[in-house]
Fold this protein.
Amino acid sequence: MSYSDWVLHVDLDQFIAAVEIARRPELRGRPVVVGGTGDPNSRSVVATASYEAREFGVHSGMPMRMAAKRCPDAVFLPSDPPAYDEVSARVMATLRGFPVVVEVLGWDEAFVGAHTADPEALAADIRRVVAASTGMSCSVGIGDNKLRAKIATGFAKPAGIYRLTQHN
């Protein structure tokens, strides 16, 4: 078995919306938009949108008023940074429980450096343990450097694993 150094990019799927849905399970499967005070008529922007809201073209950074026009049936919620801090801290602590180097990039993403023969197995373990310990879903991009790992995550979303190297 040949061991190599790998970079994994762990990105929590629809993180802010996922935290809100975990707090309010009745919202599962519904379009959820989080931002500002939660008032779609206020001058604020979308912090995140659930995948169901994204199907209507709602995305981060969009004015809340535009989000309400695109998806009038969405549930609009205020942003709650302390709640996101707490869940993020639990996720990052979970990642640090693996025999890896963790570089936190923000609430919802981190690079993981690992020396392993099977980065897909490590990625699957990370996904499983993060879900079991925090209830959060994540996607994992695997690369031979940070840039490729980050790009790979885009191919892994949602809730998947993808490897991108100089060979593919």
In short: The chain is about 40% helix and 25% strand. Residues 81-96 form the longest helix (16 residues). The first strand starts at residue 4 and ends at 12. The radius of gyration is 17 Å.
